[in-house]
Fold these 3 entries.
Entry 1:
Amino acid sequence: MLKIQDFRKIVIANWKLNGSHSFSREYFDKLVFDNSNNKENCLIISPPVPYIFQIKSNNIYKCAQDCSEHTEGAYTGEISAKILKDIGCQFCIIGHSERRNLLNEKNEIILKKINNCVQNEIIPILCIGENLKHKKQNLTKDILKDQLINCLPKNIDFNNLIIAYEPIWSIGTGIIPSIEEISDIHKYIKESVFSEPKIKVLYGGSVKANNYKELIELPFVDGLLVGGASINLDEFNKIIKF
Ligand code: PGA
């Protein structure tokens, strides 16, 4: 299995429900990611599953945006972690706030999906985050801890897991927490919730070409999960010069 501890910084592109056959061909033609001098930089791309085959370069890792809570059987429309593994996915985003909020995905379901990823040697990228109401009530850390405790299997191997801290109020809004808040939350996850300073924790929410540099270099931030800016190649080609 891939050794993510070897990576110093990780950037993930989350296309969400965007793209087309022609868009993805052009995207991978024009994407400029050169880590030949810096193998510690890791780029992971998560297009809609049918376009994953367009990722041909061997320095870009393949990622899905979700997997089924089921393993196989009569579940029309679902895609299992086993199938994702079979088509070459090394990573899978699990528990994105859009799925939690729009599709009512609860922690128990997310836990099952994480287990399915682990069993199929796919590294799960668990998304956690508070909404604005929680933030205003000063409940951010409680909410994050609850999500972490209830979404992760007790015996999870922290070497094979990525956590993405994505404040819901920051996703797609252009508003990001202060640098101090981001550092404080990442430190809290690594040191207080888990006592695992090596666990990979990425930041996501309105990451753009004009703010990525400051964010990615923060000491407790192991990388970035990029949504909107990842499907704009002018923006993303700048971000992946990290
Ligand atoms: P955004 O989305 O970068 O468009 O804010 C991030 C995400 O939802 O993963």
Entry 2:
Amino acid sequence: MISRNILRKGAATLAAATMAFTLAACGGGSSDASSAGDDVTTVGFVAVGPEGDWRNANEQNIKDTFTTDAGFDLKYAPAKDLDQASQIEAFDSFVDEGVDVILLSATEATGWQDSLTRAQEAEIPVILLDRGIEPDDNSLYVTRIAPDNAAVSKSVAEWAVSAFPTGANYFVLEGPAGVSVVNERNKGWDSVMSSQPSFVKVGAQTANWSAEEAKSVTETVLKANNNNIQLIFAQNDEMGLGAAQAVQEAGLTPGTDVKIATIDGTKGALEALAAGQLSFVAEYNPLFGETALDVVQKTLAGESVPSYIQVESTTFDSPEAAKAALPDRKY
Ligand code: AHR
């Protein structure tokens, strides 16, 4: 049953977007949607905030998409120090304020049931960006827009099997505990490695998406294993770059003595792949603002959308592939 609130808002959103487009196209008057009166769609964006290059690209893309010219009032609420309590506070205040729609990138996978239920009771649709919730109950949100973390991570494992025909001792640098994408990436990696007895998992530890922390963890792991590590799977680019520094400072050569594979596909990682510091980079495409806008417009117009919308991503497996891609990279 589509609520009257959503249907009313949907017609207004469409009117505002049309008005803004018409004004802009005619070159007359302001292209600012506010000139269309109060038909501005308010969007509460419960965001992660500063976390690294991937996050910066993702959140900037949302801001660049949900503009006033496009008929939106985007209320950006980044977490305070990645703290979930600050996100829940912002989420609940958006519900109290009666925004038209909430975008949520959750710092933690669990603990969202009450807030999502409150939004549902207030007939405010919630769209998950990137991060999922656990347990996953898609009656509590409209859709989740993200690349497929398990598939992205599986592509890294499949590359590793091809790069090491006789296996390898490996270590996994994970993102923070309790984050949905970390669990999904472990699942994808393990779905391949569980049937590869020649690949020996020396260990796994979080480095909290941080290059500095990953460098320190890798230094310790190399020392503890007498440098007998041939492969490092870093669940994001920054941690892979930190690991490469530690490998070098241990007197080893990244790409030769130790191959490092990462997820994200940021410019820094592709430059490192081009230079041989990294050996494989799986993109986790952050630029899905247009998809999110389409979902918001459809939802407010009362149209249904799939409960999961997969964002396409690619992989880079050589310096040549990285060099070819770099000129056109947008993040
Ligand atoms: O949720 C996506 C992850 O969060 C990215 O892989 C990482 O770089 C970011 O911090």
Entry 3:
Amino acid sequence: MINRRTFLKFSSACLLSLSNISHATVADYRTLTIKLRTESRHWFANYLPIQLWASDIKALNLQQFETVQIEVNNQLPNPTTLHWHGMRVKNTMDGVSGMTQLPIATGASFSYQITPQDAGTFWAHAHHNTFEQLARGLYFPLIVREAKEYIVDQDLLMVIDDWRINEERQLDIASLGNFSEWAHGGRNGNILTVNRQLNQVYQCKAGQRIRLRLLNAANSRIMTVALPNFAIWILAKDGQPLAEPLKLDKPMTIGPGERYDFIIDINMSVGKFPIHEVSSGKNILIAMIDVSANEQQQQNTHAPAALPENPLPKIDPNKIKHRIKLDMQGGAMGGLKKANYQGNLLNVQELVKNKQIWSFNAIANLADEPLLTAKSGEMIEIEMMNNTRWPHAMHLHGHHFKADSSFYPKNIWHDTLLILAGETTKIMFRAGETGKWLLHCHMIEHQASGMATWIEVT
Ligand code: C2O
Ligand code: CU
């Protein structure tokens, strides 16, 4: 009998020239190709379609613990890389341009080999000139299926993004790199999309149990999503299951790069139920749940089960080996006087000339020296002090951590964490794979203008 894997190998071998067949059949893991290219979207009637940067897939679906070889082919006019946000990959596969790999030139390919350790909701995005490439849309959601299927009636994606459009209804490229925005809240757009659509409609049946995977793919905008008044639980955060699903009864705030998986029990009443983004105080309609009749189904009355745990290293607060402070400074109204940039102590005028305005421990952007060096397996605590007037979304590559933030439910895992202006939060994690791992603000303009450092795991 021909199993699925043999079949995949067989069918891909058929596409190759004869000389490649032996090579293609030797690999004992699945290989797939992703093309990065431009994409046209007809968002506005009577205007030319908008040109975005994208991949040729809507979403990447992987299976927990199954190794895949992902050939990324760059058909864009600029070099790029892909970073697998939230995935615990080998450091050489982390996709950080200039740190873990060279950028993939136009026309060239790079093979990422990944064995997903954790089931959940992740994403892949450009990590080269990220402030430009993410604003152009170069990302896709990445779903890692649980080794044992978690059963729901529908598994839906809600990738929310924020774009800046000019009068011709094209991406506003001219304003990319606007330094005043970098010193404030970053680049904010003027339209919101869900799954790259202006009018996403989810077709559901009364009484269905839905898993909804929410991802904020914006450069810098923090969003607050008001879902319809159904029974809703938080199932997972940043790809990691909550020990117990948590009832959600208010709009959900989500920072750039963060993800939430929800369980939604659709009501028995038929009709259209709006989803709004409400962070500005106004209700912005971003999507709709269209509920149709369902003869058989009853309303669920039992709470959803937790997802199976992922094999994350255990946190032990009593065994902390490295205690580090991270003093976050700068930005508009921050009163930054000087900072070290590329080995030189610069005053604020000199920093601004270099498009730098934020600092971690008085260092703007990446230095030759890491923030800390730890051995794999050692416990680390970083006390992050947001001494700026702005919220930040701190992201650690290749690791998940716990935090003592009062902004979030207690004792959940994160790979990205909002820290409000003036707040201090401790994060705790165990050093994972060896290599160089970035720690940066996921408001990408803040990252570009100073909010980036790295840790070294040996
Ligand atoms: Cu999602 Cu360094 O990024
Ligand atoms: Cu920031």
